[in-house]
């Protein structure tokens, strides 16, 4: 496998379903060297739980599973979710089973025991075929211009948004884009312009970044001598965007006095430059955006009702990143490639733990925060886990580069309370990670060790650990505070 191929595969996800722990461990170890996300399951029930949380590009499934065959499980997928390639494997093969597997849509059929190279070659063929299909689909999508290729992600909410953009882009009606800060409102506006086939340019303006007394001149222009300092005339952005699209970002920040002038320009399709006697006809499509609730702004008298209805002919509501967590692997790959090129550094293949940590975070700053975090990681050579620990005022997990091993995040508490026996003994070095505990431990000791182990498995990300434990993060924080207080009391005594 070439270096370029491994880089392009960094966003590929694989799920192995086999009831043999040894087989799961072997395949996970081999596949994890090539792919950022490799999950394993010992039963169909475990596999279904994983599929609810993440889309997998490739499934490697044993046919003979407890309770239900792998073929029957795959045949039960509905057409919308049957988007994964599948490799079936079995130790009890006959011609009828092989035919049935191929009819079920198998990409390959492998007999056990098999050589590991044989499996890796089959995986490579599947992934390369899938990447070619993706590239062909992207090219076809460009030609058909059904929706913009710059919007990354395949989560359900993202696909719905892309479809809506493709539907309303050809219209000349005004569009209001609503969503939290950092969700990509300007990207959506550019996509609408790109697909509108309008001949003029795309012109953006942040209404909140322009002083109120200059906003009218910025939009409509002015003639020479219109006001003190206006030695030369100037075309406003309406004329610059003629036959194109004018994107008014943060429209909720526009002063009321300016809102009436904007409304008239939209209704009359003409503008009057400051100081001019005649109006100028313009053909401009307006796309406005806001992170405010304009309905509430209207009710409070801070935004004109008639302008709101004029702008709100068509509406696109952008989902927050926490509502499209399945897009994070694709976004991480996209930003890594983009930023590495800009920064002149090597792209990073994020580990499964890194991706899981990203998907467990709430992202109040949305996609903008994700990009900024990844840029910070690349510049400082630190893993994503350190980003959230720094926000929480905690010491970093890794002290050197992204490739350095992760320090146990609960080491400080174990050392502080002096109870080394709070670390469970690993009795089985396999994927199941079975542990045993001393017979003299109390239930509290076991609870503490279990919680620490789960937090450790999530690289110190308490939100992800709390989700796995089925408790609120506040509950987890309270537990850690109690242990810290106990350790302090023990030290003082």
TrEMBL record:
InterPro entries: AAA+_ATPase, AAA_lid_NorR, CheY-like_superfamily, Homeodomain-like_sf, HTH_Fis, P-loop_NTPase, Sig_transdc_resp-reg_receiver, Sigma_54_int
Tree of life domain: Bacteria
Coiled coil (residue ranges): none
GO biological process: phosphorelay signal transduction system; regulation of DNA-templated transcription
Record-annotated Sigma-54 factor interaction domain positions: 151-379
One Pfam family recorded for the sequence: HTH_8
SMART domains: AAA (SM00382), REC (SM00448)
Post-translational modification 4-aspartylphosphate, affected residues: 62
GO molecular function: ATP binding; sequence-specific DNA binding
Chain ranges of the Response regulatory domain: 13-127
Keyword tags: ATP-binding, DNA-binding, Nucleotide-binding, Phosphoprotein, Transcription, Transcription regulation
Protein name as catalogued: Fis family transcriptional regulator
Organism expressing this protein natively: Photobacterium gaetbulicola
């Amino acid at each position: 496998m070439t270096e370029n191929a491994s880089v392009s595969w960094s966003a590929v996800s694989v799920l192995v379903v086999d009831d043999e722990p040894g087989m799961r461990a072997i395949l996970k170890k081999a596949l994890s060297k090539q792919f950022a996300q490799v999950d394993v399951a010992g039963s169909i029930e475990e596999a279904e739980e994983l599929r609810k949380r993440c889309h997998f590009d490739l499934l490697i499934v044993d046919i003979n599973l407890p309770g239900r065959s792998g073929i029957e499980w795959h045949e039960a997928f509905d057409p919308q979710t049957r988007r994964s390639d599948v490799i079936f494997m079995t130790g009890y093969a006959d011609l009828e089973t092989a035919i049935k597997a191929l009819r079920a849509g198998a990409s390959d059929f492998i007999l056990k025991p098999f050589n590991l190279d044989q499996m890796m070659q089959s995986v490579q063929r599947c992934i390369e075929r899938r990447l070619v299909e993706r590239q062909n689909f992207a090219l076809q999508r460009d030609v058909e211009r059904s929706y913009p290729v710059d919007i990354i992600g395949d989560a359900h909410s993202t696909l719905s948004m892309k479809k809506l953009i493709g539907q309303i882009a050809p219209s000349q009606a005004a569009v209001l884009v609503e969503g939290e800060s950092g969700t990509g409102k300007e990207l959506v506006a550019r996509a609408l312009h790109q697909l509108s086939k309008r001949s003029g340019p795309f012109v953006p303006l942040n209404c909140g970044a322009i002083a109120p007394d200059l906003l009218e001149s910025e939009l409509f222009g002015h003639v020479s001598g219109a006001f003190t300092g206006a030695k030369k005339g100037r075309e406003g952005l309406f004329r610059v965007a003629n036959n194109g699209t004018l994107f008014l970002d943060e429209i909720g920040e526009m002063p009321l006095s300016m809102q009436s002038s904007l409304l008239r320009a939209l209704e009359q399709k003409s503008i009057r430059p400051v100081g001019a006697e005649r109006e100028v006809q313009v053909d401009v499509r307006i796309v406005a955006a806001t992170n405010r609730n304009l309905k509430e702004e209207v009710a409070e008298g801070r935004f004109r009702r008639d302008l709101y209805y004029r702008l709100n002919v068509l509406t696109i509501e952008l989902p927050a990143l926490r509502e499209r967590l399945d897009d994070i692997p694709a976004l991480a790959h996209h930003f890594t490639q983009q930023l590495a090129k800009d920064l002149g550094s090597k792209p990073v293949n994020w580990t499964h733990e890194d991706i899981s940590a990203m998907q467990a975070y709430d992202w109040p700053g949305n996609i903008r925060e994700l990009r900024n975090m990844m840029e910070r990681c690349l510049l400082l050579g630190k893993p994503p886990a350190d980003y959230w620990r720094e926000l929480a005022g905690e010491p970093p997990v890794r002290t050197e580069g992204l490739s350095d091993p992760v320090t146990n995040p609960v080491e400080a508490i174990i050392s502080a309370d002096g109870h080394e026996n709070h670390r469970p003994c690993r009795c089985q070095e396999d994927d199941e990670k079975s542990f045993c505990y001393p017979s003299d431990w109390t239930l509290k000791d076991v609870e503490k060790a279990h919680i620490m182990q789960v937090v450790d498995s999530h690289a110190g990300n308490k939100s992800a650990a709390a989700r796995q434990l089925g408790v609120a993060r506040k509950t987890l924080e309270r537990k850690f505070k109690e242990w810290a207080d106990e350790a302090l009391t023990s030290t003082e005594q």
